[in-house]
Amino acid sequence: MFFAPLVPGLLVVVVGYLVGYGLTVLVSRGLDAAFHAPLGPGVPEVVGWLLGVALLVGLVRWLLRRRRRRGRAGHQK
Length: 77
Fold this sequence. Notes:
- By secondary structure, the protein is an all-alpha fold.
- It has a domain at 42-77.
- The chain is built from 2 helices and no strands.
- Helix 1 (7-35) packs across helix 2 (43-74).
């Protein structure tokens, strides 16, 4: 039961990974077709994980700001 709250965060990271990986593969194929210079084989995976973590950090920051605003709004007279 300890890991249950972590599941939404893991899903955000995985979705970010899939989007980043897919876009990087498409860009790599485009570069290969245009300039015969594809990206390295590990680049899509690194970009995918970085985008997934960045998406998680952005979402957490947005949720914290939203929570703080709601807390201030409830205490006004």
